[in-house]
Design goal:
heterodimer, A: about 160 residues, alpha+beta, 3 helices, globular, B: about 110 residues, mainly alpha, two-stranded antiparallel ribbon, 2 strands, about 70% helix, about 10% strand, disordered N terminus
Chain lengths: ~160, ~110
């Protein structure tokens, strides 16, 4: 099976690289990261603020059906070169991973295809590992909710 | 490589993840595990077998009963954590592609 998204994370290091090729022209891929309404749609989060320019900043938020905040993140944009590079920080509020530095490189492959290379750097290798574990934890949390549903039905 | 793929296959199934969470709390007999689910005992037994084959669960005999323990070492293997993380990004990027393809045709 071909994997369209590749993750390179060497053990003991404080960074990882995510690479992905898209069936999208470069300009469209870039806009998916710089326009609020588009970010909201694919990231499935509210965009409170997104200043897509050098020295700009951004804020993301997610709430559950009851209106409680379940996710909030923010960061500063260090560099933004259209259709080429975004360098920004990202920090999830109330999460142990701390702040991460993200370097996005956008590349044209053909008129209709493009590539994204994301280099993400953490303060320590431990913090990086916590983020890598998030995928599994998310799955287990979901399973936990399911058990709760099952148990509630039995009551 | 073969074993690693099996582990991911094992945790890709929601029932099997639920079994892992249950057994993580304390060792359980197959019957006690099955009592937590609506599925048949045979179905749960099959899931337990898959989890045991890829060494996420360990069997221990206590008296006449067999108890299943979580093999924490297997769960903690850093390499194992990367694939769920990769899948999470893969799904996110698939969504991006769908959203942007629609956006393109709307223009």
């Amino acid at each position: 099976m071909e994997q369209r998204t590749k993750v390179k994370a060497e053990s003991g290091k404080q960074d990882y690289v995510i690479a992905r090729e898209f069936d999208l022209p470069l300009e469209l891929l870039f806009r998916a990261f710089t326009e609020s309404d588009l970010v909201e749609e694919w990231m499935d989060t509210k965009v409170l603020k997104l200043e897509s320019k050098k020295h700009g900043s951004y804020q993301l938020e997610k709430r559950d059906a009851q209106g409680n905040v379940t996710f909030r993140a923010n960061g500063a944009i260090h560099e933004l070169i259209p259709n080429q590079t975004i360098i920004r920080t990202f920090e999830m509020e109330n999460a142990p991973a701390g702040v991460q530095l993200e370097i996005y490189e956008f590349e044209k492959l053909t008129d209709d295809t493009s590539k994204l290379n994301m280099h993400v750097i953490y303060e320590t290798a431990e913090k990086r590992d916590q983020v890598l574990q998030y995928g599994l934890v998310q799955g287990v949390n979901w399973a936990h909710n399911r058990i709760q549903e099952v148990l509630n039905k039995l009551k | 490589m073969e074993t690693r793929r099996d582990v991911f296959q094992a945790i890709a199934d929601p029932t099997r993840r639920a079994i892992l969470v249950l057994v993580a709390l304390h060792a359980m007999t197959p019957g006690a595990i099955a009592d937590n689910f609506d599925s048949s005992r045979q179905t749960i037994s099959k899931h337990i077998q898959i989890l045991t084959e890829c060494r996420l669960l360990e069997q221990r005999q206590t008296g006449r009963e067999i108890y299943y323990h979580l093999n924490a070492k297997q769960m903690k293997d850093v390499a194992d954590f990367i694939d769920p993380f990769r899948k999470m990004w893969d799904e996110r990027f698939n969504k991006l592609e769908t959203v942007m393809s629609k956006f393109k045709t709307k223009k």
